[in-house]
């Protein structure tokens, strides 16, 4: 595992961007599965700027996503809305293929089957994940099997609270379920990028990097992968016993 500790969020975003840009520079047809949320807001800003200024090319690439809330597609908090608002609607050129899960469907199993075919068709060169406050990856909450595959997940209270805070939702508005890639799906990525920022992630970072590898800490499985880049800022690293700078 390659561990990068940055001074602050801005530096973290630059390091995350470098990983994505390097992937695309080495392989213009790269398949990149990404995530959403505060840890990557700055990274998407840098990607948009680079694409629109012809610093990187994505026309032959594949972009898919980790998960999606069970909700209407146009909900303010949906992954569909985030990806369009923060990326697809802002760039002058687009990937060859864009794959998004549809959480608005009546038949969830049919959607899971459809998206499983997408994942099989486009093996991930770069798998991007965020780290939840309880060390979840995607919507794989503590206790989820390391063998999990694309499934309908119920969100833990801490995850719901984080969603409410990030999207400024009331308890009544907040989604409670997601269709999510499983941990086994995530581990199939050739290279996994993780970014974690802020003191609220410090306990999860410590458990992921220095705690036991078990299903109580879903992200701990990353230590069993041969090619992970784990980026954290000083605040997120504040509880670690080892100095990674």
UniProtKB/TrEMBL annotation:
The keyword Glycosyltransferase does not apply. Keywords: Carbohydrate metabolism, Hydrolase, Isomerase. Residues 11-225 form the Glucosamine/galactosamine-6-phosphate isomerase domain. Coiled coil: none annotated. InterPro entries: Glc/Gal-6P_isomerase, Glucosamine6P_isomerase, NagB/RpiA_transferase-like. One of its GO terms (biological process) is carbohydrate metabolic process. GO terms for molecular function: glucosamine-6-phosphate deaminase activity; identical protein binding; isomerase activity. Pfam families: Glucosamine_iso (PF01182). One of its GO terms (cellular component) is cytoplasm. Signal peptide: none annotated. This is Glucosamine-6-phosphate isomerase.
